[in-house]
Design goal:
It is built from 9 helices and 17 strands. A hairpin with a 2-residue loop joins strand 2 and strand 3. The protein is of the alpha+beta class and 422 residues long. The N terminus is likely disordered. The radius of gyration is 29 Å and the shape is elongated. The protein has 2 domains: 162 residues, Pnp Oxidase, Chain A (Roll); 194 residues, 3-Layer(aba) Sandwich (Aminopeptidase).
Length: 422
């Protein structure tokens, strides 16, 4: 940029952006201001209308050195901005913590707050408006603009945007701990900071949604806690989602499938949806990594399986919470699913040990685990409660990374002799 157009690294202070108190908390750093505007999802828009002060909350997005404010074509600030524009003041605040002092006077808050002054113009160019709306959608989820319907002409006409050039801007920050009078330091009261942060919860699909939660709405996790897509000739493992519940219920609604599981047979699709919701909640807490199992030939949902007791520090993970529809028993699907999970654990994650737990009454499951090459390590007495309330003794098996090479050869040879199910 030329010196005439280079905005520099700071905003120049003005009479309106110069503090009269606590000037050490003020900043005009351009990058720091932009970071706060980009992190926050909403702002407060102040203006004067008919001689009276007005304050409205609204959404915003920053594009370069312009702050765009979302609104309706019939709203007061948008109507007032026609013509020469509207003098406004915009405030954006991120609350980072509550500060507890020994004295009530020294209770405070940690925060980052941007205030911008200027004259906002009404965006009238349709291309600019469409680009800003795309930027606003991308702000709530990178990739969302390509994963949703763009606005039509009527919707564009009903939407208005204000554009505020970022020229007269300041950032005020309070960070750190308690600032106490020395005379109060000996008081017998707890003092300190309680950090606050805005964190997304687990996405809740709208009624009728049949597609899984997109990747950009899933929480970023370590590879140990991320259900990566695993593909084989017989089965494909993909992240479990509530959208799979109906198909999963159809495939597994059989008393024998649920005979030794941790929950009784779901009575209907809503019951299976509750099982899926439980698995997703456990994943959100970092307790499970759930997959849905699809037939690699037909694409049909046939079952589910999970990692649990995930311990990257010890290099250990357990495989369980597995249920598979009866038509796919004694096919290559279960064997290949375990092979994929073992390969992911040992080869991709660097695990030293993989564990299985099964009900001591479940002889079929014990024989299946032994055929994988796992070693029976013992019985955990009164380990869990069964759905009927009785105590379950649990048989524990494990395979170590030293045993994995031979087990892998055996499993691949067994699958080579098994044709995929059509």
């Amino acid at each position: 940029m030329t010196p005439e157009t280079d905005p520099g690294t700071t905003y120049p202070p003005t009479a309106r952006t110069t503090a009269t108190r606590s000037r050490d908390r003020m900043s005009y750093d351009r990058a720091a201001v932009h970071a706060v505007l980009d992190e926050a999802y909403h702002c407060t828009l102040g203006f004067t209308r008919d001689g009276e002060p007005r304050v409205l909350p609204t959404l915003h997005v920053r594009v370069g050195d312009t702050l765009y404010l979302h609104g309706s074509t019939g709203s007061r600030p948008l109507l007032a901005a026609r013509g020469d524009g509207l003098p406004v003041c915009v405030a954006v605040t991120l609350l980072d913590g509550l500060v507890y002092g020994r004295s009530q006077f020294h209770h405070s808050a940690n925060y980052r707050s941007v205030v911008a002054h200027g004259t906002a113009r009404l965006v009238t160019d349709e291309r600019e408006k469409a680009d800003v709306l795309t930027a606003l959608v991308e702000k709530v989820g990178a990739g969302r603009s390509a994963d949703s319907r763009p606005p039509n002409r009527r919707e564009l006409a009903e939407t208005a945007m204000l554009a505020l050039p970022l020229r007269e801007v300041s950032l005020r920050v309070r960070a750190g701990g308690v600032r106490e009078d020395e005379a109060d330091l000996a008081l017998p009261h707890w003092a300190g900071v309680v950090p606050l942060r805005l964190t997304p919860g687990r996405p809740e699909p709208d009624a009728g949604v049949t597609v899984p939660v997109p990747a950009y709405l899933r929480a970023a996790r370590s590879p140990w806690h991320e259900p990566a897509v695993l593909r084989g000739d017989h089965v494909v493992l993909e992240p479990l989602d509530l959208a799979h519940a109906d198909e999963l219920h159809t495939a597994t609604a059989d008393p024998e499938v649920w005979a030794h599981l941790w929950r009784p047979l779901p009575a209907d699709a809503a019951g299976t949806a509750a099982v899926v919701t439980e698995a997703l909640a456990a994943h959100e807490r970092g307790e499970r990594v759930p997959w849905v199992q699809r037939c690699a030939v037909t694409g049909a949902v046939v079952g589910s399986t999970s990692y649990y007791e995930v311990d990257p520090q010890r290099g250990s993970v357990a495989i369980g919470y597995t249920f598979l529809g009866r038509p796919w028993w004694r096919t290559g699907i279960n064997t290949e699913a375990k092979l994929l999970l073992l390969a992911h654990a040992f080869d991709d994650l660097g695990a030293a040990r993989v564990v299985w737990h099964t009900d001591i009454r479940n002889e079929r499951s014990q024989r299946a685990i032994e055929r994988l090459g796992a070693t029976r390590e013992g019985v955990l007495r009164k380990h869990r409660r069964r759905p009927d309330g009785s105590w379950r003794d649990t048989v524990q098996y494990a395979m170590t990374v030293d045993e994995w090479p031979n087990a892998q050869v055996t499993l691949r040879e067994r699958l080579r002799r098994t044709a995929p199910v059509a």
